[in-house]
C-alpha cells in the first residue's frame, strides 16, 4: 500500500493561540485533499540555544548539542511538504522559531540539504505590523534549504490580536487555503513524477554544501 502524503507544520508560537488556530484551519484543508497533516509545536520541544563553541562554519558533522532539534529535523525529512508558521513578536519572528531555524539550519540541514525539493509554505500571524517581514524571513529560509516554495498569490499572512481573532480574518484564511491547496497539488505532481520515473533526483544542483572555504570532499555526514 502506498504511504499517504504528508505535510508537517512547524509552529513557532509560545502559545496555543492564533497561530495554532490557523494551522488547524490548514490541517482541515489538507485532510479534505487526502493528505496527512501534523503540527510540531516548538513550545513543547526541548530547544537549546546555539552554544558558545563557535565552530559552526568549520564543522563537517552535525551539532553536538543534545536537545529535541534532531527529532524535529527527522520529521521534516520524512514529510512531503513543510509549513513554517510564526507570529510576529517585537516586530520580528517569535523567538522560538528564530532559535529553531538557527539550530536546525546551522546544526543539521546545511551538510547535505535534506529538505531539497520538498514543498514549502509560509504563514505569519500579526496584529497589524511586520507580518510581511516575518513572512519574508521564513521564505528565504525555505529557499536557503532548496525547497520548492508555493505561494497563494498574496502572502499567507493572517491578522489577529486577541485569541480567536485569526479565525475572523477571512482574507487571510483564504490565502492560507489557496497556499495549502497549491502545496497539495505540487506534492502530488512530484509524487507522480517519482512513481512514474523511479527517480528522486529532479532539480538537483550538483553540490550539497555551499559554504565558502570547505571543499566538498570534506563534508562528512554520519550514516
Automatic annotation (TrEMBL):
Residues 6-157 form the NADPH-dependent FMN reductase-like domain. Pfam families: FMN_red (PF03358). Keywords: Flavoprotein, FMN. GO terms for molecular function: oxidoreductase activity. This is NADPH-dependent FMN reductase. It comes from Streptomyces bungoensis.
